[in-house]
Amino acid sequence: MKFMNTKAKSRISELLVILGTVLFVGGAMCYLRGELSAEHISGIGALALIFVGASAGTTKAKQQV
Questions:
Q1: 28-39 residue pLDDT tens
Q2: Are 62 and 6 in contact (CB under 8 A)?
Q3: Angstrom distances, CA of residue 22 to CA of 3, 15, 37, 41, 55
Q4: pTM, full prediction
Q5: Is 1's pLDDT higher than 60?
Q6: In a domain? residue 44
Q7: Cα–Cα distance between 1 and 23 in angstroms, integer?
Q8: Rounded to an integer, what is the distance from CA 23 to the centroid of its chain?
Q9: Is residue 61 part of a domain?
Q10: Which of 7, 21, 52, 65 lies deepest, with the highest CB count within 10 Å?
C-alpha cells in the first residue's frame, strides 16, 4: 500500500494489537465472572485472534518494505 506512510501503518498495527488484547482479556474476565457462556467466549477469542493476526501481518509487511 503506497498511499499510507509507515507511521500510519504502525499506528494501525498498534491499535489492532490493543483491540485484540482488550477483547481477549475482557472476554476471559467476563467468562470467569459468569457473565458470558462458553459459546460466546469462543467467538470473542476468535475475533481477538483475527485482530492480533492482522496486526502481525501488517507488521511483517512493513518490515519487508
A1: 999 999 998 888
A2: yes
A3: 29, 10, 18, 13, 14
A4: 0.74
A5: no
A6: yes
A7: 27
A8: 8
A9: no
A10: 52
Query: Which residues 6+ apart lie within 8 Å of 64 measured at CB?
Result: none
Per the listing, cell 467476563 goes with 30
If one counts the domains in the chain, the total is 1
- For residue 65 the three cell numbers come to 518494505
Residue 4 DSSP code = S
Structure letter (DSSP) for residue 65 = -
pLDDT at 60: 59
Whether 5 maps to a domain, the answer reads no
Query: Do the domain assignments include residue 21?
Result: yes
